[in-house]
Task: inverse folding
């Protein structure tokens, strides 16, 4: 599969859609914690200054203020870095947004080690665990411009808290503009019969590259982009595993309490007995460096995925 190289990071693609939506509806407001030029939320702020609030480097207070605005009936958006929105502001997200089911959308940049050059302090590698654990929180993780733009519309299209994981740098473009996405849905950009590889965000591209490598060896891998992490598409996974009978989950996140744990637990509850493996950070922080070298070092690149898939495919026999 040949993918077009992207020039637009998902954080910008979503912000551009947010700017467009500003002219389509006047009810939502945007909150920022002094990094609007990094999240690109400044595009909305420049166009609609009366609906844009920069509260400084105070993420917990920013989140609480957004909850207060939502309590008055206006959808509130919070933009920022994942490590700060999912951890520094976690109590406010839990108690002021999720508990009362406030209509707050969290657009979170620098997911996983896509922020490799910014170092561990800016790499959100625990964010899915925190956000998916919160009752009532919807979690989305787009991989390219089309899915990022769609994620904005999905988030604003439902009432209640939504967390959208975005990436620092542009990678590839997978989906044509206008592709349909849904809460609780997924896409299968590559069909296969020998093993199911589930991923989301940036590692979807690594999974697709790994599938190409495996195809040269006669292993036909199916790749599922589980862009909706909570809720997720149980029927699609069940149908895939009925064919492939092996599951590899690949995520730019800590292995513990990530999507892999959720899917493994589901398989056990449902009696879906298949060989299983999971790639991601294994109880370790990453480090500062280039993105390709970082995912290679920590076993999340295409070669590592292909190696794990070979073992699983062999384990079926």
Result:
């Amino acid at each position: 599969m040949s993918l077009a190289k992207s020039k637009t990071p998902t954080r910008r693609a979503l912000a551009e859609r947010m700017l467009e939506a500003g002219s389509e509806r006047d009810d939502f407001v945007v909150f920022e914690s002094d990094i609007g030029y990094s999240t690109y939320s400044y595009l909305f702020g420049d166009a609609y200054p009366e609906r844009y609030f920069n509260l400084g480097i105070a993420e917990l207070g920013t989140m609480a203020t957004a909850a207060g605005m939502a309590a008055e009936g206006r959808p509130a958006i919070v933009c920022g870095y994942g490590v700060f929105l999912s951890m520094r502001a976690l109590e406010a997200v839990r108690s002021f947004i999720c508990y009362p089911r406030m209509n707050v959308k969290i657009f979170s940049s620098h997911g996983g080690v896509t922020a490799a050059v910014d170092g561990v302090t800016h790499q959100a590698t625990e964010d899915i665990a925190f956000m998916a654990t919160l009752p009532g929180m919807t979690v989305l993780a787009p991989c390219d411009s089309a899915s990022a733009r769609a994620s904005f519309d999905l988030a604003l299209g439902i009432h209640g808290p939504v967390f959208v994981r975005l990436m620092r740098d542009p990678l590839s473009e997978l989906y044509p503009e206008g592709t349909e996405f849904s809460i609780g849905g997924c896409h299968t950009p590559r069909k296969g019969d020998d093993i199911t590889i589930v991923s989301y965000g940036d590692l979807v591209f690594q999974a697709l590259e790994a599938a190409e490598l495996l195809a040269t060896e006669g292993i036909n891998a199916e790749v599922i982009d589980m862009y909706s992490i909570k809720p997720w598409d149980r029927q699609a996974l069940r149908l895939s595993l009925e064919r492939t009978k092996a599951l590899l989950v690949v995520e730019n996140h800590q292995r513990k309490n990530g999507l892999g744990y959720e899917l493994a637990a589901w398989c056990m509850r449902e009696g879906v007995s298949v060989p299983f493996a999971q790639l991601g950070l294994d109880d370790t922080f990453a480090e500062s460096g280039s993105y390709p070298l970082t995912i290679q070092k920590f076993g999340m690149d295409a070669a590592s995925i292909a190696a794990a898939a070979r073992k699983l495919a062999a384990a079926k026999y």
Observations:
- The chain has two domains: 4-173, 187-315.
- The chain has a mean pLDDT of 97.
- The domain at 187-315 is CATH 3.40.50.920 (Rossmann fold).
